[in-house]
Design a protein that fits this description.
The chain has helices at 8-11, 27-38, 50-61, 77-91, 114-142, 165-185, 213-224, 234-245, and strands spanning 18-22, 42-47, 67-71, 96-99, 146-151, 190-197, 256-259. It has a single domain (9-260), classed as Rossmann fold (3-Layer(aba) Sandwich), CATH 3.40.50. It is globular, with a radius of gyration of 18 Å. By secondary structure, the protein is an alpha/beta fold.
Length: 266
């Protein structure tokens, strides 16, 4: 018999931690911010949409949880540095970074402009690099380890539809980046993992928001491929993020957790 396992309540207790969630104002980001805040973490809800970030942080604070908003465009180094400084100012440190901010314009390659391609990579891939670099520098200086969680996509493993080539390239990049940085940061006890969501009903996908006939027509064939026959909810990613942010995942780094209702089985 080894040591008695730690109580579950203690394992998921994040009350001594600070978490930054990018793209945290709505959809998957808000689902993640909600669960981390509920677990006790001081959460910085970072978003390029400042009013939405303020509203999301206020909703969490109204529940008696710790949350502050921050405006940040993750593709800009100065914004990212300000964001990490804001987290330290609000909560005295930084323990968890969730790289969730992302964009996914649906344009076939033959019609894709160079500027659009560069913007997708700037937000989805360069943003993950900039946030990881700034957050890890802080975590290394603190000397108490940390968690970095990158929201990739099932598209990092298999394309879901034509029109997402730039997005798919960025998400394959996020998965490759996750594995390599996990190696680099392991000596500092900073564990780096990814989540690969499948189809999630968010304002961004048009599902779960205002009914949109064009969007519904696009989603229908995707829905038909999901063994569970439904889109996921943002909270279903939030719960996995809590798993990766807490000691439930104490022996994991460089891994990707697929949360897709079984779509990759097809």
């Amino acid at each position: 018999m080894g040591m008695e396992p730690a109580p579950l309540k203690q394992i998921v207790d994040l009350s001594k931690k600070c978490a930054v969630v990018t793209g945290g104002a709505m959809g998957i980001g808000y689902g993640i911010a909600y669960r981390l805040a509920e677990a006790g973490a001081g959460v910085v809800v970072a978003d390029v949409n400042e009013p939405a970030a303020r509203e999301a942080a206020a909703r969490l604070a109204a529940k008696g949880w710790r949350a502050v908003p921050a405006k940040a465009d993750v593709s800009r180094k100065a914004d990212v540095e300000r964001l990490i400084a804001a987290a330290v100012e609000a909560y005295g440190g930084l323990d968890v970074l969730v790289n969730n901010a992302g964009i996914y314009p649906n344009v076939p390659v033959m019609k894709l402009s160079e500027a659009d391609f560069e913007r997708v990579l700037a937000v989805n891939l360069k943003g993950v690099f900039l946030c990881t670099q700034a957050a890890a520098a802080r975590m290394i200086a603190q000397g108490r380890g940390g968690r970095i969680i990158n929201v990739a996509s099932v598209d990092a493993l298999h394309p879901s539809m034509v029109g997402l080539a730039a997005y798919d390239a960025s998400k394959h990049g996020v998965w490759g980046f996750t594995k390599n940085v996990a190696l680099e940061l392991a000596p500092h006890k900073i564990w780096v993992n990814a989540i690969a969501p499948g189809g999630i009903a968010t304002p961004g996908t048009g599902a779960g928001a205002v009914p949109n006939k064009e969007m519904e027509a696009m989603i229908a064939p995707f829905l038909a491929k999901i063994p569970m026959k439904r889109m996921g909810e943002p909270d279903e990613i939030g719960k996995v993020a809590l798993f990766l942010a807490s000691d439930l995942s104490s022996y994991m780094t460089g891994a990707q957790v697929v949360v897709d209702g079984g779509v990759l089985l097809g």
